[in-house]
Amino acid sequence: MSIAVEESINGKTILWTAPTFDQVRIGWDETRHACADKAKFIQQTMTAHMPNNGKIIYRSLDDPDNARGHTADGIIIDEAGDAKERAWYEVLSPMLIDTGGWFWAIGTPRGRNYFWREWVDAVNREDSMSWQIPTLGVEIVGEELIRKPHPLENPDVPFEEILNRFKTTPRNIFRQEYLAEFLEGEGAVFRNIQACMNAVQSFPEAHKGHRVVCGVDWAKQADFTAISIGCADCHYELVIDRFNKIDFAFQRERLKALCDKWHVKQILAERNSIGEPNIEELVRAGLSVTGFDTTASSKPPLIENLALALEKAEWKFINDKIWAGELESYEQKINATTGRSTYGAPEGMHDDTVIARALMLRVATSRVGVLFEV
Fold first, then answer.
1. What is the model's pLDDT at position 221?
2. pLDDT in tens, 145-167
3. What is the CATH number of domain 193-364?
4. How many other C-beta atoms lie within 10 A of the C-beta of residue 93?
5. What is the pLDDT of residue 288?
6. Where are the domains of the chain?
7. Fold held by 2-123
8. pTM
9. Over the stretch 57-93, which tens digit does the pLDDT of each residue have?
10. Are the beta carbons of 216 and 267 closer than 8 angstroms?
11. Strand 341-344 and strand 331-334: pairing?
12. Half-sphere exposure of 299 (CA within 13 A, CB side)
């Protein structure tokens, strides 16, 4: 922001961009705070007019064509890892040909995308530089996290907090979000998947008296209802079921039959939308069911709990091509405005089985009798 202001005060035109409008507003608000009454801010055009006829133009890249039609002496892409590749190569980069202007790309790594390619290329160019700055200077040595100060780290973050994140966050997520590492497989959430797909056929008698639990993700038409039943004592997935285009009355009977057969003690089912009436009917049928509201706040810890169990190989899961495939394709993104992780299946794919397993694991790792009111 300081560089953009200094350049625009010297008569330059700077284009400030980010993947979403909310992220653009962060730069806009910071500039207004810095410039006070020394610049004229016109919200209708999202432009800051500086002395000496310089200006900063703010544009969202949710549609890269929003930035077309400008000439720029300098371009900033905030949260560049989340911006579309086309935005840089087709829209923004050509603007600098006439002016010979500069380019700043800032953000959290998102796999080996264009941001990574430009970061690597900057190392080999005489007119460019690149940096990789961790939240706090640390080094992973085996299973330990060692303090290793970095000159550009955040001085306000205590080592104890980073150490806690290291212990409770899947390793690939920690390396990407806190160490700023470019990892293979953009946005991949789950690791060590195949090593955990080793559950063999089991029978109800083998788990008699054990705490058997169940996770349910509901659907009717486009998506699939998914059911995962596991033994909390053995850390073992016992049954998986997945189906769609079946009326809810039949779905409830199918779930009840499985729960009766395996003597399920607790069910954690997604409550959003269609889940609420189904849960009410199951409770009337005598099943111990608790609802889980999947929100932007509740979903990340739910998914990260499953990711950690897979990474540490704490559970054995049933090896099914569809269920394993949904784990392998599951993606993570970070909201630059809130700093929160968001998770989901790639466009055109499903995540029902992932949610069912995550709910099963959530209730399995909870204290007996705890109700979930998220």
1. 60
2. 999 999 999 999 999 999 999 99
3. 3.30.420.240
4. 13
5. 93
6. 2-123, 138-177, 193-364
7. Rossmann fold (3.40.50)
8. 0.55
9. 999 999 999 899 888 999 999 999 989 889 999 999 9
10. yes
11. antiparallel
12. 19
